[in-house]
């Protein structure tokens, strides 16, 4: 992986990103803004499952309101994240925080899709205990993802070095 990252770092596109510091800063700003959009969307969906917000609305109504924001934010994060990886491939490839963050992001999205499916066929107003536990887990995972995203800058100090 490090060999690929070293190769990628020397490509003209990566060099172009590296030499335009304003572009990296812009991509990071958009990426962080989208983290907020996704975080709030997933938080609202999870809190609705936990019956903490929008109690008067059906889960499907809350899902329909926040899911488009979540998917749009995830798409924008994927695009800006891809450019950030291309701009700093060695840093990302060797960052334990990055890989943990990516793994937890996949878990969080899978959990939210499971929540959607579990609540879509729900007979009563109260979700099952497992559904509430998953919703609480999503919130915890989101907090860890935000921490790990920030920890990438201090990865060697937090986890040590891969090289």
How would the blueprint of this fold be written?
Blueprint: H1 2-9, H2 12-19, H3 21-49, H4 59-87, H5 89-93, H6 96-120, H7 129-151, H8 155-159
Helix pairs in contact: 2-4, 3-4, 3-7, 6-7
Radius of gyration: 18 Å
Q: So how many helices?
A: 8
Quote the distance from N terminus to C terminus.
11 Å
Question: Main beta sheet: strand number and arrangement?
Answer: none
Low-confidence region ranges:
none
Describe the structure.
- With 163 residues, this protein is mostly helical.
- It has one domain (2-159).
- Helix content is 81%, strand content 0%.
- It is built from eight helices and no strands.
- The protein has helices at 2-9, 12-19, 21-49, 59-87, 89-93, 96-120, 129-151, 155-159.
- Helix 2 (12-19) packs across helix 4 (59-87).
Q: What can be said about this structure in brief?
A:
The chain is mainly alpha-helical and 163 residues long. The chain has helices at residues 2-9, 12-19, 21-49, 59-87, 89-93, 96-120, 129-151, 155-159. The radius of gyration is 18 Å and the shape is elongated.
Q: Which characteristics define this entry?
A:
elongated, 163 residues, mainly alpha, single chain
């Amino acid at each position: 992986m490090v060999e690929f990252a070293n190769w990628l770092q020397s490509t003209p596109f990566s060099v172009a990103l590296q030499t335009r510091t304003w572009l990296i800063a812009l991509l990071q700003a958009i990426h962080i803004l989208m983290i907020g959009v996704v975080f709030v969307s997933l938080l609202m969906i999870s809190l609705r499952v936990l019956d903490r917000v929008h109690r008067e609305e059906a889960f499907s109504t809350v899902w329909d309101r926040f899911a488009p924001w979540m998917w749009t934010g995830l798409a924008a994060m994927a695009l800006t994240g891809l450019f950030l990886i291309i701009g700093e491939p060695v840093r990302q490839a060797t960052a334990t925080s990055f890989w943990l963050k990516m793994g937890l992001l996949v878990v969080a999205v899978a959990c939210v899709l499971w929540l959607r499916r579990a609540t879509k066929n729900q007979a009563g107003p109260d979700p099952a205990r497992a559904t509430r536990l998953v919703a609480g887990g999503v919130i915890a995972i989101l907090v860890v993802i935000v921490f790990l995203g920030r920890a990438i800058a201090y990865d060697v100090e937090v986890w040590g070095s891969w090289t």
